[in-house]
Amino acid sequence: MAKTSIKRIGILTGGGDCPGLNAVIRAVVKTAILDYGVQVMGILNGFEGLIDDKMRPLGMKDVSGILPLGGTILGTSNTANPFRHPVRNNGEIEFKDVSDQAIQVFHEESLDALVLIGGDGTQNIGFKLSEKGVPVVGVPKTIDNDLQGTEVTFGYDTAVRTACEAIDKLHTTAESHHRIMVVEVMGRYAGWIALGAGVSGGGDVILIPEIPYSIDAVAEKIMERKRRGKNFSIVVVAEGAKNDKGELVVQKTIEESTDPIRLGGISHVIGSKLEEITGQETRVTVLGHLQRGGSPTPFDRNLATMFGWKAVQLVVEEKFNQMAAYQGGIVTSVPIQTAIENLKTVPPDNELLLAARSTGVSFGELEKK
Ligand code: F6P
Fold first, then answer.
1. How confident is the model at residue 369 (pLDDT cuts 50, 70, 90)?
2. Is the pTM of this model over 0.90?
3. Residue 249's closest CA among 234, 257, 237?
4. Fewer CB within 10 Å, N or C, the chain?
5. Ligand 1: which of 186, 239, 289 to mutate, most ligand atoms within 8 Å of CB?
6. Which domains occur in the chain, in start order?
7. How far does the centroid of ligand 1 lie from the alpha carbon of residue 135, in Å?
8. How much is the average pLDDT of 187-212?
């Protein structure tokens, strides 16, 4: 067993749940125990458990059988944030900085390091904690695939598979009833899920936040298909897609959340406009949280396992304020700061995007003259 001065590490899952979280937890616990004899404490419900000192030891038995399980055995929260802790006062929400309390819990529990599994919100908090002297290692999680520094996050592949399967199923109704089927997928301000699922599902139109769309251009694509005898069309729309006036559709705002804006509903706006312009019967499906549920794909299980293994190595080598990352087929690490500077969006020269365009997919742009 390799020698290390690290004795006990804490692990938490923050933000929205995501397929593969349990696979990371399992890999961290097994690597820590088997390779280094290090104890792991599971912190419950994201940062809530660090603020309120709610944690439990995780042994080999606790992680047995969880590799294919969706969700997180530790629970999670997208409102718990030590630097912006929501407290209700006479119906009003006040935010308090309770980071010193969380750091005190870290020391009282005799933790030597924290492994934080989460998206940009969680990594942001991790960065701030490390600035206050907490040894932190990040693991990039999100179905949205929008974290910089890593080519892919775990959860993305599973979300794309779920959305692709849904589009395959919607094809049958589209064809049988000669309808336009509008499918809304998640992804926040990045179009990765829409692009990945739209291309693999054979979408005719794919609308992503990175390319402002014109509803007339989308309608024209559908009518052009009709003129060619294609009596149905599939429109895949990212929840964060913007029209040519820069407008997006916000479903609601959750003040306590680390990321208060909830997108959603754009497919209904697009669906009714397309029905009006084209005169073709249109139906709308919002895939929502189905994309975050269920068992992770083999790719995500393997990526999550490598990330968990890498996170423990970073901890025992005392390479803190780093996030596990996947680049060019290799698992490596980047400073957490790199991951949170900007969102990773779909670049205009993305090869899947270019291939989609060359194979007749419309991104709703007006024809370039
Ligand atoms: O970041 C993951 C994600 O599923 C986004 O794609 C989506 O916009 C958001 O979380 C939904 O959040 P909630 O679970 O709070 O509704």
1. very low
2. yes
3. 237
4. C
5. 186
6. 8-154+294-340 (3.40.50.450), 159-292+347-358 (3.40.50.460)
7. 28
8. 98
